[in-house]
Design goal:
This protein is mainly alpha-helical. The protein has two domains: about 160 residues, Cytochrome c-like domain (Cytochrome Bc1 Complex, Chain D, domain 2); about 140 residues, Cytochrome c-like domain (Cytochrome Bc1 Complex, Chain D, domain 2, Orthogonal Bundle). It has a two-stranded antiparallel ribbon with strand order 1-2. The chain is globular and about 60 Å long. The N terminus is likely disordered.
């Protein structure tokens, strides 16, 4: 198994990565990834996590794996408005990309789960997603000599939720997008990596409009939960409000990354927008006037060429580099 991108040596050594911006060129443009001290990286753990991510035995009826919703070819999304679980059950939301997920301080659209290790159990146990039980999974995986041996060797224990979630988290921390045409242009000085129109689009995104205040490079999210005025009334899903019942959280969702955005539609937490054109129309109208809508979002006018340029720029954020 080869990890294609260059990662800092400290990452390979399994240490908490603390990189400073002025250090050598092998440091990713993405900055620091904090790895929990009790789940250090190893290639064996990565291989185990990868196998688990693609293993359908993690679901009730052996019909779906993590990759059934997080498809590598769609930058780890599924092309559906709302994800579908076992037996065609409707899940709750649109499937987010997993690129650079290891850099995120929180997970889910509610921005409330704080570790990838903890997150991994949620889809496995969710009745509308994989609908499995830990006991059933352990029974199945314990019959597979690869898993038994790998878990013993890496963790010095028998297969359990602890080993499964740590391995899945380790695999996900290796899903890195940092070499899109835009990255090569902006961070690596390759003037010709993106078109002139995409360059104009970047100026519009970052200077004429206000997008970077929330979709801030290099992650194209500042990881906060915000209300972007999608609805006047959030009826089916009130976002982060459901976690603490705090009315100032109504309609707030974790700001999604825009990396690989061309591959990850339909858009928004409920997949209600099919195209980037629709998204731009939404913002240009200034969004719906919900009380919690961020004041940053205000109406604007772009001509046809400017809209085209903005979409071309968004397309230059594609870096779907995963190799099976
Ligand atoms: C049925 C489809 C489905 C399956 C199967 C699934 N996911 Fe997801 N995943 C989703 C959806 C939908 C969300 C958003 C949930 C939310 O915000 O409430 C999500 C969110 C996530 C997130 C949070 C991403 C972020 O940026 O906040 C991670 C990490 C993740 N999934 C990993 C996994 C792993 C690991 C597995 C396998 C154990 C898995 N998923 C299985 C649909 C799925
Ligand atoms: C105040 C913060 C904020 C600003 C400013 C902002 N966005 Fe967003 N953006 C969000 C949030 C929050 C979501 C997700 C909302 C949801 O799912 O309900 C989102 C979603 C998106 C999506 C869909 C992402 C996906 O994977 O579904 C795109 C594309 C997008 N924004 C583009 C832009 C553009 C272009 C601009 C500038 C015109 C912009 N945003 C300005 C907060 C912001």
């Amino acid at each position: 198994m080869i990890v294609k991108y260059s990662i800092p040596l400290s990452f390979l050594l399994g240490l908490t990565v603390l990189v400073s911006c002025d250090s050598t060129s092998d440091v990713s443009i993405l900055g620091e990834m904090v790895i929990p001290q009790d789940n250090s990286y190893s290639e064996e753990k990565l291989a185990l996590g990868k196998k688990l991510f693609f293993d359908k035995r993690l679901s009730l009826d052996n019909s779906m794996s993590c990759a059934s919703c997080h498809l590598p070819e769609k930058a780890f999304t599924d092309g559906l408005a709302i994800a579908e679980g076992v037996k065609g059950r409707k899940a709750f939301r649109n499937t987010p990309s997993l690129y650079n997920v290891g850099f995120s301080p929180t997970f889910m659209f509610d921005a409330h789960i704080t570790s990838l290790e903890e997150q991994a159990l949620v889809p496995i146990l969710d009745a509308n997603e994989m609908a499995a039980t830990i006991k059933a999974i352990i029974d199945k995986l314990s019959k597979d000599p690869y898993y038994v041996q790998a878990v013993r060797k890496i963790y010095n224990r028998e297969i359990d939720a602890w080993a499964i979630t740590r391995s899945l988290a380790t695999f996900q921390r290796t899903l890195i997008s940092d070499n899109s045409p835009f990255d090569r242009y902006y961070y690596k000085g390759e003037r010709g990596a993106i078109s002139e129109s995409a360059k104009r689009g970047w100026k519009i995104f970052s200077e004429k409009l206000y997008c970077i205040q929330c979709h801030t490079p290099p992650h194209f999210t500042n990881f906060k939960a915000e209300n972007n005025g999608l609805y006047l009334d959030y009826i089916d899903d009130q976002g982060r409000f459901r976690i603490h019942g705090d009315s100032t959280d109504k309609g707030k969702f974790k700001i999604p990354t825009l990396r690989n955005i061309k591959l990850t539609g339909p858009y928004m937490h409920d997949g209600s927008m099919g195209t980037l054109q629709e998204v731009i129309e939404h913002y240009s109208r200034g969004g719906e006037q919900h009380v919690n809508k961020s004041p940053i979002i205000q109406p604007f006018h772009l001509n046809v060429d400017e809209k085209k340029a903005l979409i071309e720029f968004l397309g230059a954020l594609s870096d779907n580099n995963f190799e099976e």
